[in-house]
Design goal:
34 strands; mainly beta; 1 helix
């Protein structure tokens, strides 16, 4: 063999070895990236995203068939075996997951509006224990719910034409109907013993606020209004049942107020004026020291005010609250930037000025971040998810139709750690960040709606 031939062979062998090492290394890098990159699991056929349980053990959805489903947020597998052992599940489940409400799609009725046939299912036994028909409103949704301890279920009842004619209350787990009567717009006390009622008379002009004893069938009235200009919508009892939130709308365009009543003395403890065309889903938070209410729509911004003070106005106006109600978050445009402000929510932190003292402000060049914005925040305020409109241009400089986009931001580093927009070009998105910030659930638009759940990069 000639010397130069052996030198060429050696060089080729060395090159092949380096090539093999490079290929293996590249494959390892690609595999590592694929494993570390958040990949979703898809829950097909899901029409609504109900939300995560407070203990983060389950994700609740509602299928396009009207049936509620429970999923393990980590694996996407059904977890019906946790029924009765969960905490803080959202409707259509009772708080601990013992019961589920299944609603058939709304059926239109000529001249009366739609109604839905409902079934209350005991998830432990799998048996259907209550069947009922409920009127449905696109604005308010079905008027029904469980008491916090799951001992009672109540619902508006529809007649054969779909109109609301009564309210029924059932005890659980026996499913016995303990009340059926004419009550419109109501709140039920945590004990299940009392309703706060409105419009309990046949006089269309009379708007009566009263306390109704379900078992004794007695109404104790303490306020009556005969004005066409205002309406009182019964909202919610406090955790002890001794106070009541009442939302007052009307009187002048775009004005409303929140009243907090003492049930025993029948006196107003606090009243706060709120600029809004409608108030929805009010509730007491922070050991009943604060009241939170949605403005303009059931998913609108949340106004938060003190429940025992007549100091006028609201203390915070936020996009959303954390699952434990300790943190609020709001996104706004400000001089060409996107500002995300985080607030510590407590009665001690309440200020006479709205959103006066943010705990943290995250600022980003606005760029392609377009409104409207909607934010979610974790229980420890370590992560924020922002839903926005992505206004970007194609490579040839042409403006592309805006798409829905979602970004998850690490608060301590003020960096975007995850974002996605490719799949969300049409329709409205429902987005929920898990309380621990380890995953995010996204309900994609109809007609082929589904829920996608992404595992997020690990914290730290």
């Amino acid at each position: 063999m000639r010397p130069w031939t052996s030198s060429i062979r050696a060089a080729v062998i060395r090159h092949q070895r380096w090539l093999i090492v490079a290929v293996v290394t590249s494959a390892a890098v690609i595999a590592s990236y694929a494993l570390s990159r958040p990949r979703p699991y898809v829950l097909e056929g899901q029409g609504q995203l109900a939300g995560f349980s407070a203990d983060e053990l389950a994700l609740a959805t509602i299928g396009r068939d009207g049936v509620g489903y429970l999923w393990d947020p980590k694996t996407g597998r059904p977890c019906d075996d946790l029924a009765g052992m969960l905490t803080g599940l959202p409707f259509p489940f009772s708080s601990d997951g013992s019961y589920r409400i299944d609603l058939e799609p709304a059926n239109p009725v000529s001249g009366k509006g739609p109604f839905q046939n409902g079934i209350l299912v005991d998830l432990k036994s799998g048996e259907s224990i209550i069947r009922f028909r409920v009127p449905f409103s696109d604005k308010f949704g079905p008027r029904m719910g469980f008491t916090p301890d799951g001992r009672y279920f109540y619902s508006a009842i529809a007649d054969s034409g779909g109109g609301a004619v009564a309210t029924a209350v059932w005890s659980l787990p026996d499913g016995n109907q303990i009340y059926l009567g004419k009550i419109v717009e109501m709140a039920i006390s945590p004990s299940g013993e009392h309703f706060a009622t409105q419009s309990v008379t046949d006089d269309n002009q009379a708007i009566m606020l009263g306390l109704f004893s379900i078992r004794n069938q007695v109404i104790e009235s303490w306020l009556t209004s005969y004005s066409w200009l205002t309406s009182r919508k019964i909202a919610a009892f406090s955790s002890e049942g001794d106070r009541l939130v009442v939302c007052v709308e009307g009187g002048s365009m775009g004005r409303a107020s929140v009243q907090v009543w003492d049930v025993r003395s029948k006196q107003i403890l606090a009243e706060h004026e709120i600029r809004s065309y409608g108030l929805y889903r009010p509730r007491f938070i922070h050991d009943d020291q604060l009241v939170a209410v949605h403005q303009d729509s059931t998913d609108g911004p949340i106004a938060i005010c003190l429940s025992k003070s007549n100091r006028p106005g609201i203390a915070w106006k936020v996009d959303s609250l954390s699952a434990n109600d300790h943190w609020g978050v709001r996104a706004d445009r400000n001089d060409g930037r996107l500002d995300i402000r985080i607030f510590a929510i407590s009665a001690d932190q309440a200020s006479p000025m709205i959103n006066e003292f943010p705990t943290t402000t995250l600022s980003f060049p606005q760029g392609d971040w377009g409104g409207p914005f909607k934010c979610e925040i974790t229980n420890d305020a370590s992560r924020v998810a922002v839903r926005y409109m992505d206004h970007y241009s194609s490579g040839n400089g042409m403006q592309v139709a805006p798409t829905h986009a979602i970004a998850v931001i690490d608060v301590s580093s003020q960096k975007v750690i995850w974002e996605r927009h490719d799949d969300f070009r049409l329709g409205e998105l429902d987005v929920q960040l898990s309380p621990d910030g380890n995953c995010i659930a996204i309900k994609t638009p109809a007609p082929n709606s589904a829920v996608k759940v992404f595992r997020l990069p690990r914290q730290g």
